Amino acid sequence: MIETITIDLTDKWRTRFLVYSEALLSGPYLTQDCPIVIISDFDLPPSHYHVDVFIERDKFQDIREILYFTLDVINEFISQISFVSYSPSELISAISICPHEVQVDEEFEMTIFNGDYEINKVEIKNTDLVNRVNHEQDGVYLNLLHLLKQALSTDALELRFLNLFATLDFIADNETVEKVVSTCPHCDKEIEGFKATSQFIRRTFQERGIDAFHYNQIRKLRGKIAHGSGVRSMSFYSELLSSLAILESVAYDEVIKRGPLKVKRNSKIIAPIPHTTITAVKVSNPTASLPSVFGIVNYMFSVASASFTGLQNAMETPPDQFSGTFGPHPTDRGLEVPREAWPY
Fold it and tell me: Would you say residue 272 has pLDDT above 80?
């Protein structure tokens, strides 16, 4: 029996993503009760899809809430299709958030994401790298670099968080000598248990002047994410972003202390969201030969993020000499809204 999904897209926000998948996607699908619609576009390269995630218009009020929530949905969706199809799948980029459909002469707000607005690139020279690593002696260090690479390579904030915490867990497991000792309630005999890795990590935060409140917040978040509990509200994402800033700074500094490589950038933006908020109006509906026409009333560019300055240990460039900044303002070149970003 073929299951038929009936979805109502009336009065919905639509977040459109560009997704790569070697699975054959048709849809519609449901993930976290959110309708997901696959848009086939012949202009896209093979195995690329526009994927729309829909949520109720009154569910969130803030653009960051909508983006973070739909990022969770799309990443969960991609993980599922990759597993079921046993084939590569990944999120390429977010394109826009807008009402699904608007009427002629209706004024509305939408947001497009400026993927070409990037932190200036860091030039890597041969002297920045090491020629030969002793795998037998430095295997732990190479695994730490791999975990940090994984953290930087994902758009999913929760996966980034878990990889950063796993970096500290890995260090603690390899360097902790003391064991957790408990006493038998029946014979009072001391029983030696697992390595005291939690105490090692707690001391690592304390040595950096991070108080117990923030450490406990990070520890609880790690448990909440790892075990899939908790409501994903804006307060959750705000807490996640602020904790990510601290966690990333600690993880990088601890790895820097344990190896020959240095980080050339000492100021970082956590999960930047360069975006342009647009007020627009629909001028006309599509015809057989022409798409819908929209007029732009005004627009404003901004970067929503949690930022911090960290990585001060073993830095190659002192903070006062750091010159890495964001690239050119995208609206300096005139606002360009891709065809696929507009609503219907």
Answer: no
C-alpha angle 217-221-223 in degrees, rounded to nearest 5: 120
pLDDT tens-place string over residues 289-314 = 888 889 888 888 776 554 333 333 33
Rg from Cα positions in the chain: 24
Q: pLDDT for 35-92, tens place per residue?
A: 999 988 878 888 999 999 999 888 887 777 888 888 888 988 998 999 999 999 988 8
Q: What tokens were used for 79? A: 């993980």
Closest among 162, 160, 150, 140 to 258, alpha carbons compared:
140
Strands 48-56 and 12-21, bridge-based pairing: antiparallel
DSSP summary character for residue 31: E
Single-letter code of the amino acid located at 304:
A
Token pair listed for 342? 């507009």
265 band by pLDDT with thresholds 50, 70 and 90: low
**207 Cβ contact partners less than 8 Å away, ≥ 6 residues apart:** none
Q: Which two tokens stand for residue 273?
A: 């969201």
- Contact (CB, 8 A) for 172 and 197: yes
What are the E-state strand segments in 48-189?
48-56, 89-99, 107-113, 179-183
CA distance 156 to 154: 5
